[in-house]
What we know:
By secondary structure, the protein is mostly helical. It has helices spanning 2-5, 9-45, 55-101, 116-124, 147-155, 158-173. The mean pLDDT is 80. This is Troponin I, fast skeletal muscle-like.
Amino acid sequence: MADEKRLSARRKHTLKSCMLVVANNLLEAEAGVKADEREKFLAEKCPPLELPYSKEELTELCHKLHEQIDLSEEERYCIEFKLNMVLNEVRDLNIKIVDLRGKFKRPRLKKVRMSADAMLKALLGSKHTVNMDLRANLKQVKKEVKEEDKQLRDVGDWRKNVEDKSDRKKMFDS
């Protein structure tokens, strides 16, 4: 049954190559979408630069660019500050979780061979009076003797039994 379900090496190879072609096409499509999104974003945020020829126009352009840089830096600072606040909050919550759990490093315990009596004595100290002798706590079961078994034991010697039966036979004969 397992032999019927197995694929031949050639079939496996063709399936793998088909899967790789499909995956490659998907990756190329995804890369194209990302490139389009990037171009759209850059066109939106950074309009094409037209350099003026006069000195006054150049200074105006520099002032505009400085204002845009200031705005972007301000946004970056706000986002960075919010991120740091969130990270600190996550760190504090993790500390609270650890505290609530009561997580302590547990020492490795060594294996010790100890009887049940010794273990109870170590745990309870001098209060330990219970004896863990399990055989003493078992119930006593009396064996019932069946009547058939008694009769079989009472039969005793077979020769004697045959002689008794021969006496009976004589009674019927006479």
